[in-house]
Amino acid sequence: MEFTSPIDEYIVLKLSLSDYKPSTRLLDSRYRICGFETRDQLRKQERKLLARYFENWSGPYEGTLKGWRKDSPIYVLHDNTLVAGVYLCSENEFDEGESWGQVHYAFIHPSHKGQGVYSVLFKEVVEKAKTWNLEGLILNSDRHLLPDVYLRWGATPWKRIEKKPKPRRFSLPRRIIRRIFSR
């Protein structure tokens, strides 16, 4: 199973910002971290990367996540091409308290995995959360091994939520046939 392959449940962790143990990784000079100020230029690339990894990618793309702010997006560019991103929100979907934000929809282009990009990006997330006066972050992941990374960075397990099975979709001809024979 690939490092960020989807798994059958959501693993929810809490990271108190005072418990954060940052990685010592650094990125070379061809990478740069940016935010909402570059979002208009990156929209096409952002949509493509979100759709690659997430079935329900429109929430972050349209800015409809709970606690969304103009400066929620945090991106990593490599030679001016979007290669990674995440969305920091000032509230969380679990109503865990006003001082707890949430990190959503971490994505990274496959050709940049394993190079420390996400660890450097996450450091930026924590720094921004501190400037927002947040106490901690809720980390909700349905990706293989990502919760283990969060544990190394100081997060603690909080909840597990089983994914609901997806409704079966039938093609139009099959739906017509089912409707005829169900009468």
Explain this structure to me?
With 183 residues, the protein is of the alpha+beta class. The protein has a single domain, classed as Aminopeptidase (3-Layer(aba) Sandwich), CATH 3.40.630. It contains five helices and seven strands. The chain has a seven-stranded mixed β-sheet with strand order 2-3-4-5-6-1-7. Strand 3 and strand 4 form a beta hairpin.
Name a few traits of the molecule:
183 residues, alpha+beta, Aminopeptidase, seven-stranded mixed beta sheet, 5 helices, 7 strands, globular
Ordered list of secondary-structure elements with their pairings:
Elements: E1 6-16, E2 31-35, H1 39-53, H2 58-62, E3 73-78, E4 81-89, E5 100-108, H3 117-131, E6 136-143, H4 146-152, E7 156-162, H5 172-181
Parallel strand pairs: 5-6
Antiparallel strand pairs: 1-6, 1-7, 2-3, 3-4, 4-5
By secondary-structure content and strand pairing, the structural class works out as alpha+beta
Any idea of the CATH class?
Alpha Beta
Terminal CA distance reads 44 Å
Oligomer: single chain
The general outline is globular
Main sheet overview: 7 strands, mixed
User: How many structural domains can be distinguished in the coordinates?
Assistant: 1
Strand order of the largest sheet: 2-3-4-5-6-1-7
Mean pLDDT equals: 89
Estimated share of beta-strand residues: 25-35%
Give unreliable regions as ranges.
none
The helix/strand order is EEHHEEEHEHEH
The total strand number stands at 7
Which CATH-level-2 architecture?
3-Layer(aba) Sandwich
CATH topology: Aminopeptidase
Q: How many H/I helical runs?
A: 5
Helix content: 25-40%
**Gyration radius from CA atoms, angstroms:** 18 Å
- For this structure, what is the CATH homologous superfamily? Gcn5-related N-acetyltransferase (GNAT)
